[in-house]
């Protein structure tokens, strides 16, 4: 039986980053990916400054930003347009975007180049527990099963988290989650340095549809065009996201010179840490599998990259058992912001909410002042060091919501 100090299940951004951090910390690492290298992942491909900052820590920011850089968000709808540049923060002011086929392969290949053993087309299953510790797992490569022994296992197996489920991971869909579709369209505006979001979508009879659309230029002759909506089990978004995507593309075709949407796919987004059983004695769940997606803007790459670094920090810190330490760290680092965002996002699942506040938020002098601040909150670009009024209000509101919603599932 082969043996590794750290086995990472899943080579998306979270898993590949965990492998890089672990190998840099001197561990013998096996990175497993069920798909082929360069596999696709349904995503908007957008990278906020928070993600670029984390790429810097991996020594990879330059490879990504050399292709394309953006300066912030442009929000459209309800008769208004607001430009919200990335705020001046510790994360920097550089955003980017890169198709996930390329982005994820870059990270996985970097892990291998720095010394991790990388197996693609290799599916992990059947975790064996002995004395509460995950002692071994089965890896199936080309139909052949291998038994692997592990001292530590980092589970980064994405939204479905089939391996995580075998360890008892549970996703609470009574809390807000996202449904979304994306596509790639040719566009002569592929180098436009802003991420665009349309918060007012209208149907064929000019009726307001639940949901929002995005166009994220990629600097390679194409844009990532997609749409999505927030949902809960109690108020499921009644939306065919792929159909809506084609409708949205038709509406934007002239302005963006769009080609036909290609490679249209849809997926769910687990959000705001609404996941429980995320750790055992020697295993931790990170990334989408741990609900590491911001409910207010759907970004999860940055949180996956950050969680990867935190998980390796816990291993390095010499813990023998992280069953409680891992969820405690997640709650301390993200709990207040995610709970507040989840609570605010819940409002967006009421179909009447956006049409009521949209015109005020996006039009005129109020919108021009309000929305850049809102964009900073939406992208969670406030750090613990920020002392300005907005940062203080955000933190106070976070503490209030945390106190009021004490029993809500949050990496419990
Ligand atoms: C439509 C849409 C748009 C989005 N837009 C953005 C955006 O613009 N910006 C942003 O930051 N986030 C965005 N997100 C969220 C983002 O895609 C995720 O948060 C991110 O991919 C999470 O990374 P991850 O590594 O946790 O999981 P994943 O990227 O899903 O990677 C998990 C990997 O694990 C592998 N795997 C699964 N099971 C096993 C197994 N048993 N053995 C081995 N390997 C396994 C899978 O093949 C996969 O490669 C979007 C999501 C959606 C659905």
UniProtKB/TrEMBL annotation:
PANTHER family hit by this protein: CONDITIONED MEDIUM FACTOR RECEPTOR 1, GERANYLGERANYL DIPHOSPHATE REDUCTASE
Domain of life: Bacteria
Record Pfam families: FAD_binding_3
GO terms assigned for molecular function: FAD binding; oxidoreductase activity, acting on the CH-CH group of donors, NAD or NADP as acceptor
Protein name: FAD-binding domain-containing protein
Matches recorded under InterPro entries: FAD-bd (IPR002938), FAD/NAD-bd_sf (IPR036188), Geranylgeranyl_Rdtase_fam (IPR011777), Geranylgeranyl_reductase (IPR050407)
Coiled-coil regions, chain positions: none
Organism whose genome encodes this protein: Corynebacterium maris DSM 45190
FAD-binding domain ranges (all copies): 5-306
């Amino acid at each position: 039986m082969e043996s590794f100090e750290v086995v990472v299940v899943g080579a998306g951004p979270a898993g590949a980053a965990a492998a890089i951090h672990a190998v840099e910390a001197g561990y013998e690492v096996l990175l497993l990916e069920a798909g082929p290298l360069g596999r696709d992942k349904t995503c908007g491909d957008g990278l906020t400054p928070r993600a670029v900052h984390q790429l810097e820590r991996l020594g990879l920011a330059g490879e990504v930003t050399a292709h394309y850089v953006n300066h912030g968000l442009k929000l459209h709808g309800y008769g208004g347009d607001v430009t919200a540049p990335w705020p001046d923060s510790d994360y920097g002011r550089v955003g980017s975007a890169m198709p996930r086929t390329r982005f994820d392969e870059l990270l996985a290949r970097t892990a291998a180049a720095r010394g991790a053993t990388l197996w693609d087309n290799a599916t992990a299953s059947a975790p064996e527990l002995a004395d509460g510790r995950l002692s071994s797992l089965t890896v199936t490569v080309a139909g052949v099963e291998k038994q692997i022994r592990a001292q530590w296992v980092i589970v980064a197996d994405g939204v479905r988290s089939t391996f995580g489920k075998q360890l008892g991971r549970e996703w609470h869909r009574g809390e807000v989650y996202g449904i979304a579709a994306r596509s790639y369209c040719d566009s002569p505006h592929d180098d436009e340095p802003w991420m665009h979001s349309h918060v007012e979508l209208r149907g064929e009879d000019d009726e307001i549809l639940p949901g929002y659309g995005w166009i994220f230029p990629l600097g390679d002759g194409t844009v990532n065009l997609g749409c999505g909506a927030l949902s809960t089990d109690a108020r499921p978004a009644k939306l065919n996201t792929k159909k809506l995507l084609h409708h949205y593309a038709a509406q934007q075709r002239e302005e963006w010179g769009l080609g036909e949407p290609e490679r249209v796919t849809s997926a769910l987004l687990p959000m705001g840490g609404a996941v429980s059983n995320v750790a055992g004695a020697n295993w931790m769940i990170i990334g989408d599998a741990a609900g590491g997606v911001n409910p207010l803007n759907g970004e999860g790459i940055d949180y996956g990259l950050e969680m990867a670094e935190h998980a390796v920090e816990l291993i390095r810190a010499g813990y023998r058992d992280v069953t409680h330490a891992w969820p405690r760290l997640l709650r301390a680092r993200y709990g207040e912001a995610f709970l507040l965002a989840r609570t605010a996002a819940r409002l967006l699942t009421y179909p009447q909410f956006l049409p009521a506040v949209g015109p005020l938020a996006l039009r005129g002098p109020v919108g021009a002042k309000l929305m850049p601040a809102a964009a900073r909150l939406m992208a969670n670009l406030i750090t613990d060091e920020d002392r300005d009024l907005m940062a203080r209000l955000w933190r106070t509101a976070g503490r209030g919501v945390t106190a009021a919603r004490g029993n809500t599932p949050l990496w419990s």
